[in-house]
């Protein structure tokens, strides 16, 4: 992986992921990404360029004397990357090679400047991942020199050494770059791996068309498929392709990730089908402030007091029959839940007895954030919880009185449960070891945008 980290990382961070499918995600990497990649890429590129050189066969007198030449270190003071429209990425690296020539009686030190130029083409691979290939690579060599204070050497020997080194490096340096790119393609293959969403659910991203590359950014279209028990989640209505507007997000950010309405709809449909939003709310019977018992309900509903003269536990079975609805407006994300609540009491024989059932509508404000590679959320109740009686086995119910009680015992457990689920989050498009950093989430009409930096953790 060390060698893959070389040019591989340089290009991998340029190709993380994007989408414009159904449901769609769009990621743009702007020029700011190139500055970040250039800085962190110098050290791994230096290691990758430290290749092995064959012995120099130097004829001295009537015999051939093999001379060992070793690269002691490579320093890359300059690394520049540019997008090439409709093609990929151009790399220019200025490197200083320091050699040690093991001559008798004393070793010789040499310095040789090299400029490395490479063009990397970005395409769509057969397994729906980005594929990078080196289409052109050149090494431009300067003149070798002896460091100040070192032993002098004859110009003829210097020319001989330089000729040998150039002949070897002109092939080996570009081969090293190509090897790094091959390792990179393995790394980019992790894009299509399944990422867990819950105990029985996953999400998988895949590239759906050829990357879009301009002189200012690179963008990849990625399809997101959510799975529950191995089966894909399919939206009940046809979706439309998602295109990320140019103005979205923060100006000059490293990565801009667009998340379509369809992605939110798919995630909520997954939660609903998995039953993840269902819960049972109970209370401690002996607790002084427990409102979930027949005594508390009996003070509001006489028939409950008549049927249960002794306090018995009450359970709220909250079931989500309808799919939650997320609405994205500019600077405002909301979530609506329509749970069905069945109010049950434990009878003397420990069997559950249905008292009444309620149709509930809860509107919530949704705050979005990003941690590492996951989009997370936090919800809070907006306005009043709407409660109506669906059925009753305890006669007429005065909802003005029961409403306050139900709201008190229902809202907090629901929020705790929902926020625990939203806190788990859903993985954004990513490859192994690549994280989003200092991310800000903006909400627009029909989509959300993550403006973020990137961090590769080797």
From TrEMBL:
Q: Known InterPro entries for this protein?
A: Bactericidal_perm-incr_a/b_dom (IPR017943), BPI_fold-BPI/LBP (IPR051660), Lipid-bd_serum_glycop_C (IPR001124), Lipid-bd_serum_glycop_N (IPR017942)
What is this protein identified as? Answer: BPI fold containing family B member 2
Query: Which species?
Result: Loxodonta africana
Instruction: Give the family per the record.
Output: Belongs to the BPI/LBP/Plunc superfamily. BPI/LBP family.
The chain positions of domain Lipid-binding serum glycoprotein C-terminal read: 249-452
As given in the record, the signal peptide range reads 1-20
Entry's Gene Ontology molecular function annotations: lipid binding
Q: Does the keyword tRNA processing apply?
A: no
UniProt keyword annotations, A-Z:
Signal
